Amino acid sequence: MSLKLENISKGFGRKPLLNEVFLEIDNNEIVGLFGRNGTGKSTLLKIIFGLLKPDSGIILMDGKDFPCRKIIASGKIAFLPQDSFLPKNRKVREIIPLFFPNGNDQDKVFYAKGVADFCHKKIGDLSLGQLRYLEVLLIGNLQHPYLLLDEPFSMIEPVYKEYIQNFILTLKNSKGILLTDHYYLDVLKVSNRNLLLKDQGLLPIQNENDLITNRYLTKN
Ligand SMILES: Nc1ncnc2c1ncn2[C@@H]1O[C@H](COP(=O)(O)OP(=O)(O)OP(=O)(O)O)[C@@H](O)[C@H]1O
């Protein structure tokens, strides 16, 4: 299975963000995506998920045209948005069955490391780390072969960050994952390869030094 973007361009008003972007993701790799604030990382993820229509260019799934309006319903791509999306007044143990009607699938979340500690709580009473971890478990355990993660590590306490990283690593051989976060060291811990969104295009990044050369990081 392969997901391919060809010649994707997108801008808002006069501001070009993506200019003829090419990207291919296999279904057994984790791709880290870096880029300074406002360069268009979330925009790129939203295009891949079908929430935003590119100005031009195409997306291909297994070599076939994958039109924007059909992506969400296809069940091929799951997306963790940057902002939290669960209803605050519902309990964790009520939310899990809403995502997974099947008991075995529910158990993957109920019995994931650490979930028992906050299963009885309302979403609105969870810590930021517990909430983000739960969201990653819910979206990551869906059957979709591709997973887009927009800032899973931001503002998360170390324990839950580690849980999230370990969970993402368990998906490595079964999904294609595109992961963006400014916590670049956390991304580098799980990714197989990395890209930097700069000057409206994607550059391959081998290591931290490339991030310095391309002015995403400073030398100190
Ligand atoms: N729907 C929209 N309408 C107009 N402008 C938008 C829209 N969505 C995003 N933008 C603008 O496009 C630019 C890129 O936004 P985007 O959220 O994709 O950046 P990002 O690389 O994810 O940034 P960050 O690292 O801060 O999360 C920003 O300047 C943003 O204000």
TrEMBL record:
Annotated Pfam families: ABC_tran
Claim: Transport is one of the keywords in the record: yes
SMART domains documented for this protein: AAA (SM00382)
Gene3D superfamilies documented for this protein: P-loop containing nucleotide triphosphate hydrolases
Domain of life according to the entry: Bacteria
Signal sequence bounds: none
Family listed: Belongs to the ABC transporter superfamily.
PANTHER family referenced in this protein's UniProt entry, alphabetically: ABC TRANSPORTER ATP-BINDING PROTEIN, ABC TRANSPORTER ATP-BINDING PROTEIN NATA
Name of the protein in its database record: ABC transporter ATP-binding protein
Species of the source: Christiangramia flava JLT2011
Organismal lineage: Bacteria, Pseudomonadati, Bacteroidota, Flavobacteriia, Flavobacteriales
